[in-house]
Amino acid sequence: MKKLIAFTLGCIMVVGGVISSFAAEPQLEEKTQSVENRELWNEIRDTLDTDEYGGIYVKNGELHIKPKNSEQVESLILEIAPNTRAASSIVIDEEAKYTVEELQEAMDNTIDIWDDFQLEHVALSAEYNGLLVGSSEWTEEKKDAFVEVVGMDHIVFEVTRDENIEQQSDEIERAGKAPKPGTLVENDAVRNKTDNAPLLSTISACVVGDFDGYVTTAHGQGVKKDQPNKEAIVEEGNLIYSDYRMGEVLGRIEKKVMEGSRGVDAVLIKKDDGAEMSNVFPLDKGTLVTEEVAFEGDRVNIFGGQEVIEGAIVRSTHCTKQWDNQLDDEGSDMWYNMIMMTTLKGTPRGGNSGGTVAVCVDSDLKYYGIVGVYKGHSLDSCDRSFYTDDMIDEEAVSAAERAATVYLYASNWGNVKRALGIDSIY
């Protein structure tokens, strides 16, 4: 039974039974999370120890907590936020079977059996108080064996298969004289093999620190500008244009971090003296005003240079993904601590990598907070099955859960900031 913490009334109100809707698309009228709410939510998440709860997620504009001990968590929340408006956005779910600490340990242990079970991704699910596990095939025997090895039965088994999904497109805008999040930039040193055009990526944010600059993705490969027979990758020192055709220089890559162990795929470009800075998204889509931490269940927009993907849903803030065609600087294809999202709106186009993953904090003013740097997508469609009946009411799962789904991945913004030595957004 869920409990709504109604601080203004000084009591706890029962609001109904637990019905999960993991992959059902939230309605567009879903509440926007205010900055005040999210500040409280972050404080609660930072205060709770991983052995005190089984997950935190957002649903319908409210923060849901799965406590290990309900009374202990209620007391803690009342102490943190007595009689505040933001506190009315907190819901306490039924007590969790597993703690976050136990889930993380089980998730870490899957690395040892990754190849045995031909895994593609493993992600922590707060709402299900379990793990989302992807593989190309799941037989009943294979499921039983996996559950026995990891030592827990709250598992969502996802059968992944390659599937081409219709692409969507939007107006393309290069950064030009006004570099801003969501605009394309061009790497002069790395060229496409087919037409020798500069490699495209998207600005995540304009930032400040030891110097002013811009963040975009670190991955990408092609051929050298003047040596089309020699392969090239993104490297420190590469010259980046905000518009190559017009000769608009953005700056040079000062620092590159491509580390799967930290889940960071990003570079920091040092601003050229003639370049400008702005955190207003193109096409009047809004303004990047703050930095946030993603919650499972967040509805986010991905501002890519080729398109804006609206209404993607954060499925996990703690995902391990094997990226066969994308090695980090240590030669590993395993990426940890990634944000995992889904969209039913088609396969994103190339060039969106580096795009801003942002949550809306004020819908009237179109203000956004950055939560991640978009890395890429997998061409997977998933059928899901739940190992135990207590995880979900199968009748409550909408058709959207069974539909073709594109998984999207991003580096957590906090990890990117620390890795690149950024103070804040511009």
Structure described in brief:
By secondary structure, this protein is mainly β. It is built from five helices and 26 strands. The protein has three domains: 2-92, no CATH class; 184-271, Beta Barrel (Thrombin, subunit H), CATH 2.40.10; 283-425, Trypsin-like serine proteases (Thrombin, subunit H, Beta Barrel).
Output the number of helix runs: 5
Query: Radius of gyration over alpha carbons?
Result: 22 Å
Q: State which percent range the strand residues make up.
A: 35-45%
Report the top-level CATH class of the largest domain. Mainly Beta
The domain tally reads: 3
Tell how many strands the DSSP assignment holds.
Answer: 26
* Global shape: globular
Structural features, described:
- The longest helix has 13 residues, at 35-47.
- The protein has three domains: 2-92, no CATH class; 184-271, Beta Barrel (Thrombin, subunit H); 283-425, Beta Barrel (Thrombin, subunit H), CATH 2.40.10.
- With 426 residues, the chain is mainly β.
- Strands 9, 10, 11, 12, 13, 14, 15, 16, 17 and 26 form a ten-stranded antiparallel beta sheet that branches.
- The relative contact order is 0.16.
- It has five helices and 26 strands.
- The chain has helices at 35-47, 70-80, 100-109, 140-150, 413-420, and strands spanning 2-6, 11-16, 53-59, 62-67, 90-92, 119-125, 130-135, 155-162, 184-191, 198-202, 205-208, 213-216, 221-224, 231-233, 239-243, 248-259, 264-271, 287-291, 299-303, 308-322, 334-343, 356-362, 367-378, 380-386, 406-412, 424-425.
- β9 and β10 form a beta hairpin.
- It is globular.
